[in-house]
Amino acid sequence: MRTITVAGAYGVASDGTHFWATSQTNNQLFEFNEATGVQIGSAITVGSGPQAIADDGTNIWVANTGAGTVTEIPIATLTPVTLTLATSEAPRFIVSTGTQVWTAGFDAGFELSEISSGPVTVTSAATSIGTTTATLNGSVNANGISTTVSFCYATSSPTNCSGATTASGSPSSTSGSTATSETASITGLSAGTTYYYQEKTVNSAGTATYGSVLSFTTAATPTTTTNAASSVTASGAVLNGSVNANSDPSTAVTFCYATTSPTNCSGATSVSASPSTASGSSSTSESATLTGLKAGTTYYFQIKTVNSAGTATYGSVLSFTTTAIASTPTTGSVAVASSSSYSATLSSTGNTGAVTYTKTSGSSSVLVSTAGAITTTGTLAVGSYAVNGSSTDTNGGVGTWSFTL
């Protein structure tokens, strides 16, 4: 039989390799090697009047009868943390289940008190999930101990955050005895990817606890393709494209067009596509019918999609040219009287803009103005003059004309 002297010894506990003893004289806890009886390290100061001890393999728990408190001592760090009981009962007995700690006292009538072993850490569903961003959520009850909070996430399910990326919680620490909501906004994620995450807390005693592992999937980026325009006329065309929403539940689809090449539809006219939304994981054909275009003009266009997370993607820029319309001026004749001047007016059909008339042959005294009026610069003799010319409208259409004065 061996005898080990501890002044004011009261409580004792053993894990088979070490044993622990409290000293009410010094308000301390001592650790001994069970095989040799030699003290290990220095005594650890606990609360006033320490009595019973509990060892759950992770922490040593000491009931401090004189102070009405419990001291938690992580075996890994041996850094004591004092916990105040909700009841005024002075604890005399203590037991730990590994997840909960119970104390008992009988000063004012027998009472039990429950103490959580470390923070209560709960992982909640992620919100604000975008293509490359998300908000992680959870809650923490620090059980009255200063506790730091973080989240970890990875593309495979982590075990106690091992190998995962860490993001600080907001708030990053808490010390209350009620649940505190926690969040972490993360960025730089990959589109259409499943991520796994959990909340992690570490109290000032070094005790780490972890919430459950949950998952979320970022929104997919649609595959957006611009195809060649069809049914091109002088004043209209059909724009074409295709969209694969890549399982996004609702992707909005539009086209944009302009007479100069747009960058991501900036400054261009936007029109709804048909159909106006795409979903699923297969390609959907898209189109938009344009009217009221200008003949003989080159237009540039592209398809645009916006997924349910608000992320826009664009197809390549293509172009088409509407059909040009040639002018067909009306011919006619005007008799020239014995006068110093005369005038006649040409009209045109089929053009969509003003016509410029140019004389190509005939009397050198006959001029043709841009407004279509024919005038003289001097007196012409009575008779007939053949006048021939051409006209060009603003769309590039060219027509020829002739008549006799």
Strand and helix map with partners:
Layout: E1 9-14, E2 18-23, E3 28-33, E4 44-45, E5 50-55, E6 59-64, E7 69-74, E8 81-84, E9 93-96, E10 100-105, E11 111-116, E12 120-127, E13 134-141, E14 147-154, E15 165-174, E16 180-186, E17 194-203, E18 208-210, E19 214-217, E20 223-230, E21 237-244, E22 251-258, E23 269-278, E24 283-290, E25 298-306, E26 312-314, E27 318-321, E28 328-329, E29 343-345, E30 348-349, E31 355-361, E32 366-368, E33 373-376, E34 386-393, E35 398-404
Antiparallel strand pairs: 1-2, 2-3, 3-4, 5-6, 6-7, 7-8, 9-10, 10-11, 12-13, 13-16, 14-15, 14-17, 17-18, 17-19, 20-21, 21-24, 22-23, 22-25, 25-26, 25-27, 28-30, 29-33, 31-34, 32-33, 34-35
Short description:
The chain is an all-beta fold and 405 residues long. Helices cover 0% and strands 52% of the residues.
